[in-house]
Amino acid sequence: MGVSIPPKEADRLKNIVDENGGSSDEFDSEGEASEGSEVSEVATEEDGGSSGDEDASTSDGSGLVDDEDENEGSEEGADANGSSSDDEKASASVDDGLESGEGSGDSDSERSEVAEESDSSEDEVAPRNTIGDVPLEWYKDEQHIGYDIKGKKITKKERQDKLDSFLASVDDSKNWRKIYDDYNDEDVELTKAEAKMISRLLNGKAPHADFDPYAPYVDWFKWDDAIHPLSNAPEPKRRFIPSKWEAKKVVKYVRAIRKGLIKFEKPKEEPRFYMLWGDDSGAADKTNHLSYIPAPKPKLPGHEESYNPSLEYIPTQEEINSYQLMYEEDRPKFIPKRFTSMRSIPAYEDAVKDSFERCLDLYLCPRVRKKRINIDPESLKPKLPSRKDLKPYPSTCYMEYIGHKGPVVSISTEFSGEWIASGSTDGTVRIWEVESGRCRKVWEFDEAVQYVAWNPMPEFPILAISVGQDAYLLNTGLGNEETQRKVGELLHVEAAKVSDDSS
After folding, report:
1. Residue 111 pLDDT level (bands cut at 50, 70, 90)
2. Is the pLDDT confidence value at 433 over 80?
């Protein structure tokens, strides 16, 4: 019967092997002897002989060579007589189970009864405990660990302590093969073949000795006449058209989202447990005392209380007398004075009065929270009319002023709106008539013109021009004789007289 070995039991087996001075070679030789003995037992049972002497010989370490010779002969006899039937194999496995577990009591007898009723091999026999895949921790406080096939409780056995297990290992040489099965609450003795398999697994080898992990690869596919791929079918039509079922699913999800059946925001989970009287106590606490509102902070001094302000901010005596005639609410709180240094500043006259009024406000005045209205700044902007309502507005080219050879960088309109001055990167300044587009005058400079501007006073038609690092004031020549005379007087600059230092 196959038994799963826990890691602790595997470590215990390995430690026992190391203590006894054994090795994997001894396991291999011992396993071969055990396999030969099992085959000889089956052959002798068919011939009607007993296998007791052979078991005695295999248990002794000195008769391994004789057992191997007998096993070879028994294997040849078994091959000559043919394979045994399933019933004979089942009966042989049951007999082996009975011989190996003579001291197990009722549990072994029940196992033999189950094996006799079934025609399957020993590995396929159902476990004695029928609780299923249930954790054994559920039965740690019970006197039993489950129920058998007949519905009877499987009582727990008394576990051996360290001393009893040591004495048992001394008395029985095969005790190191026994492992404890927690599921069925019984000790299971491993066969030599299973011990050999465990030894190979502990050494990092394959469980079976016949397995070759480095066997040559056998390519079962024939590539000689393969001129086409394995699947040479044409592409189906569904690969080139959209899926109608996916479209239906998309429509279904869209409708569910619109109806609110599918929500992307997860609802806040309310606490499952809460205080039974928590709401009432909280309401009582709120009504018993007033809510705390912090006191407003005093106003900080500003620039109006400067000790050395400018002269224009210092009031005259007449203004001070007029302050006395005002109402107290409209009267300024502070009259600025000027001091030459900070050492000459006297003490504040109303310091005690202001502190007293501050204390009165904190003690007597009720406090109220000021509600602030959150307004979107965009809503305060005036709504601009639509472009459709602004027609007629210029949408086509009405006039072109042609004459500059470079890009125009600056334009300025005269106060009356009759003339336009333009400056270009070609170093020219032109004056145009707005209505006709005629060029009235042209001035040329060595560098590109950066900016032009008309004089805002209409009685002086003067044009300011910025060229490079220089600024020019030009008389445009517009207007009547009186206007030109005023412009000439304004722009007239006398030459500076150079004094003669030699005289």
Report:
1. low
2. yes
What is the C-alpha separation between 4 and 17, in angstroms, rounded? 19
For the cut 60, the answer to whether the pLDDT of residue 42 exceeds it is no
- Domain holding 47, by residue range, is 1-84+192-227
187 DSSP β-pair partners: 180
- Listing DSSP states for 326-374 in one string gives S-TTTS-S------SSGGG----TTHHHHHHHHHHHHHHS---PPPPP-
Structure tokens at 495: 């030459």
CA distance 331 to 341: 28
Q: Give the CATH number, domain containing residue 430.
A: 2.40.10
Q: Is 491 left (phi over 0), alpha (psi -120 to 50) or beta?
A: alpha
- H or E segment and range at residue 433: strand 428-433
Q: Inform me whether the pLDDT recorded for 327 exceeds 50.
A: yes
What's the structural domain count of the chain?
A: 2
Domain membership of residue 392 (yes or no) is: no
The answer to whether residue 58 is domain-embedded is yes
pLDDT at 368 (0 to 100)? 85
Residue 432 within a domain: yes
The CA–CA distances, whole Å, from 352 to 255, 333, 347, 348, 349 equal 74, 15, 11, 9, 8
The terminus-to-terminus CA distance of the chain in angstroms comes to 141
Contact (Cβ atoms closer than 8 angstroms) between residue 202 and residue 14 = yes
Which residue in the block uniquely carries the two structure tokens 């005269």? 414
Coil/strand/helix, residue 189? strand
pLDDT at 285: 55
Confidence (pTM):
0.26
Contact between 109 and 98 (Cβ < 8 Å):
no
Confidence check: pLDDT of 9 > 90: no
pLDDT band at 144 (very low <50, low <70, confident <90, very high): confident
Widest CA span of the chain, in angstroms? 164
| pLDDT at 390 (0 to 100) | 75
Per the document, the length of the chain is: 503
